[in-house]
Structures are given as C-alpha cells and as structure tokens.
Amino acid sequence: xEQNKVYxxxxxxxxxGKSTFIKTATGIQDIAIGxxxxxxxxxxxxxxxxxxxxxxxxIDTPGFNDSLRSESEIxxxxxxxxxxxxxNPPRIKLSGIIYMQAITDRKMYGSSLRxxxxxxxxxxxxxxxxxxxxxxxxxxxxxTGGYHKAVAHERQLxxxxxxxxxxxxxxxxxxRFEDSPESAIAIIRTLMDQKPLTLQIQAxxxxxxxxxxxxxxxxxxxxxxxxxxxxxxDQLAQVQHEMREAIEAKDVEIQESxxxxxxxxxxxxxxxRRAHDDLHYRxxxxxxxAESLRVELREMRSNMERxxxxxxxxxxxxxxxxxxxxxxxxxxxxxxxxxQRMQFQGVVDQLRANQSRIxxxxxxxxxxxxxxxxxxxxxxxxxxxLLTALATTLGxxxxxxxxxxxxFGAESFSDMF
Length: 417
Prior knowledge:
Elements: E1 6-11, H1 18-26, E2 45-51, E3 54-60, H2 71-87, E4 96-102, H3 110-123, E5 131-136, H4 138-143, H5 147-159, H6 165-169, E6 173-176, H7 181-192, H8 200-207, H9 216-248, H10 252-279, H11 290-309, H12 316-341, H13 344-354, H14 360-374, H15 382-394, H16 396-401
Parallel strand pairs: 1-3, 1-4, 4-5, 5-6
Antiparallel strand pairs: 2-3
Helix pairs in contact: 1-7, 2-8, 2-10, 3-9, 9-10, 11-12, 12-15, 14-15
C-alpha cells in the first residue's frame, strides 16, 4: 500500500542546525533550539505540516555527540523509531534523510566522523539516493566575513573520501540551507517525490530479526564502547602505577592530583560500561522513594537555574549532568503517579498487550524484569521499579509503544508517526 504522508528524517551532530531547519520549514514556534552546543533534542520527535497539499512529517533526531546521553541510548531511540514505524502499521518508509552539517565547523571532530559512520550503517547503500547532505550557517559565515572559508570547507566535505565524497558517488546530494523558509522548503521538495525506501537497519531489525547489537550500526557502537573500556582500563593502570611511586616518594601533592585523575577516569569507565550494558539490554537500576525524588527535583531545578544564569564555562558539564539527573528523576516520579492509578498486574497486562510492537530481545528483557518482580514477597513499589527499569533500558520510543507515553510527555503511540 502506498503511504500518503511524506516522512523525512533530519539527522546530524548536536549544533548542526537540525531543530533550526525544522522550525524554519514548518513554522512551528515551540521547537527548542540548542545553545552553546547543548542538545535540545533528547529523543526522536516528529513534526507535521502541510506542503503542496500533502502532509509532510519531519523527524527530529538527537545527535550521536549528545551532551547528556550515551551513543547506545541515541542509537536505540533512532533505531527503535525506524523499527517500530516499519514493523507496525502504517509500516513507514522514509522518502528521504536530510543530514545537517554546520559549515562554520572548521574541522570534522571525532564525534562528527562517528556520527557520519553511524549514519552510513543506518542507511545502507540503496537509500543514499534519498539523502541530501545539507550545510547550515551560511548567514553567519557571510556576516562574520567567513564566506570564502565556508565555501572551502564545503568543497573539502564534498571531495574528501573520509567525509561525503564516496556517498555522493552513490547518488547522495548536497544542498545549502540559507536560513530562510524558502531554502528549507526547496530542499524538502527535492525529496517529496522520491520513492520511499527501506533503510538497512529496518531490514536488519524487522526482516532479518536481528538484535540491535548485531546490526551494522549496533556493531559500530559496540566496538567503540569496547575500545573506550580498554582505553580507560589502561589509563587506570598507569595512574595506579604513578600513585604507588608518589606514595613511596611521600609526595602528597602528586597523590592528590592523581586521585582526582583516577576518580575522573573511573567515572568515564563506568559511563562506558553502562552504555555497553544498555546496548546489550542489561539493567543496573537503583530504587528511590517518591518523596526523596520530589526533594531532588526541587534542588536540581534550583541548581540548574542558578547555573544557567552563570557564564562560567566550568559549570556546563555540571549543568549537563544535573539536567540528565532531573529528567531521570522526573520520569521516575511519573512512574510513581502511574502506580497510584494502576495495580502492578494491570501494568503488566498493558505491557504484554502491546509487546508485539517491539523486538524479541526487548520482549525477553521485559519478561525477565516482570518475572524478577513477581518473585518478590512484596509488591509495594514494584510498578514504579518495573516502569523505570524498562524506560531506562528500552528507551522512550519503546515505552510509548508499550502503552506508557505519559512517562515522556506524549499522548499515544500513533503520535510518534
């Protein structure tokens, strides 16, 4: 059956102009725009508007260098949206993908190259003819006298094999977003009549029934996380060696400096481990009470507001972390509210009624968590624990598909499409 709507995904790293492009094209005013490279798009969000008598859906996606979330979380959300929209009616295929790149970024950083590599593995070969690499920031380049440098950067992107050259050879196109509605609409129109195609990751997950980690995109993230764990393991060993030497030399100042380094490396290592667990659908969750969550939320909100008013860049990392903690606590509080309305068995029944929408590996994780909680002597707090564990590991798209959109401020599964 031919789909009536035109679905176009908008992808790229944080700060590349995805949300700005969508806001400019659709005229929707309540789309958050990121500042100071902080990501405003935390999850996959569709935006609908009419163009040439047809309904167009632009799908905003988080970048793989998101300031708050791991690459495995980002991959899971994007992959799940592509999976569920293709697995379930109306069985959506994308008419195109607009891949954004800020022309004012003088270098393609590691995160940008990883994002591009991930993008290629999501798409596969055939859908590249439905891809438009779109550069943003031309207005700023002209205003600051950097236009000629921007043109040189555009040429480098198109001609360097590590960037877009090989993809352009396979029929991907290049366009400029000139910060105007006319420019955005012109780019969208080039994709509206393209034949919708199945992406590689949709074929892998739905038609080949692979687990996410066994897809080509999942393998890219998995290998990156393994490499990070090894890197941090080696760094810890080196710091511990230097610590022993400092202790023998009774150098207190060096010991204190090394202890700070050790703590930071351990934090990075633990973050990589959690991301690796997440990709393999393993969960390590801690329960907290509703009252403590409300106190945490108030404190977090207050701290975030104070930091947002500060111009000191040293606060940005802390602000990122507190924003994520705030979102996690707010989600858990919503789970507490669901528990007040529904008994544990009612939640389980609703989850099972909708589990055909998700992948087998996710259903396996779901049933394991239910069985674990059913074996406990008391059911107090079980609903909250179940929902937060599932949301943390499965992600927002899966929880919306399972019938709990209120955890993430959505209304229904169909709203995702």
